[in-house]
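Priority: medium. Attachment 1 of 2:
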């Protein structure tokens, strides 16, 4: 048996008849003697009993490398109480979280709430965040909504610029935990066409990789498809044969006053064009070349 390995063996009764199978799963044990002491209490729990109050207890499970959970501790039962306070818990960090303090913080009260954060490399080697996905709550196999973003915003139009993608576990106190990281480029992303093979990247947490001898990854991120759609510019429409007709309409509203008065926006100045005429001239001189 090796770390994080699963071994299944068929069982037989003495007569040789099959009697099912037994599966043994192992994981690497961290060498630590730290002891964790905790005191928990609760308030205003939902009442699940029909003829009285609930009899609550806490059950602690730690996440395994395959995303499943294994129970490591249960508190005593506090009878008939919706505001229980349990006795102090004394447990080794090895038993509680296999000595992995980040595992406790991330998955202590349930599964992760993952989201992705995209950053592009700057000229000085640092990174700037350009996009974040939505949070998928309580899910170790999340599927995020399609992302729509301009190449200018994503990578400044540089298909070979390095993009760093961080996968975080969202926490409501703002202390989001890093699950893992990978890097890519828009050129690589754009090779994933709809209906073709998915691209995938292992999500690497450097702290865990340094601490665990047999660390592989903290999950895998898959890309189902990537489409780069060119958005046509004004000149593209003109070169494609789009015709423009320039028509001007002026509404001489009474609120602008008498056109004969110098205070009116429609005042016909014998020495210089008014603001309306200036605007029409500026726009018309450009548009006239495209009026067919």
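Attachment 2 of 2:
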């Amino acid at each position: 048996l090796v770390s994080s390995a699963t071994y299944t063996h068929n069982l037989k009764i003495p007569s040789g008849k099959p009697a099912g199978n037994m599966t043994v799963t192992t994981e690497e044990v961290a060498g630590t003697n730290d002891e964790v002491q905790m005191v928990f209490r609760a308030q205003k729990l939902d009442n699940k009993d029909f003829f009285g109050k609930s009899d609550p207890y806490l059950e602690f499970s730690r996440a395994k490398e395959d995303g499943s959970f294994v129970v490591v501790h249960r508190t005593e039962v506090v009878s008939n109480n919706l505001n229980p306070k349990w006795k102090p818990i004394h447990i080794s960090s090895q038993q509680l979280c296999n000595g992995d303090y980040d595992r406790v913080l991330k998955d202590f009260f349930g599964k992760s709430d993952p989201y992705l954060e995209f950053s592009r490399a700057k000229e000085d080697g640092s990174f700037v965040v350009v996009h974040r996905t939505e949070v998928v709550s309580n899910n170790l196999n999340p599927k995020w909504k399609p992302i729509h973003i301009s190449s200018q915003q994503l990578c400044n139009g540089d298909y070979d610029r390095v993009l760093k993608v961080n996968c975080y576990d969202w926490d409501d106190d703002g202390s989001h935990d890093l699950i893992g990281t990978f890097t890519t480029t828009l050129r690589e992303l754009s090779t994933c066409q709809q209906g073709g093979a998915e691209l995938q990247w292992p999500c690497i947490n450097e702290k865990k990789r340094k601490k665990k001898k047999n660390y592989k990854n903290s999950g895998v991120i898959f890309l189902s498809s990537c489409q780069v759609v060119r958005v046509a510019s004004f000149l593209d429409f003109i070169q494609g044969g789009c015709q423009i007709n320039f028509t001007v309409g002026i509404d001489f509203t009474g609120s602008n006053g008498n056109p004969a008065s110098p205070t009116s926006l429609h005042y016909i100045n014998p020495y210089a064009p008014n603001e309306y005429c200036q605007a029409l001239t500026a726009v018309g001189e450009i548009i006239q070349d495209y009026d067919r």
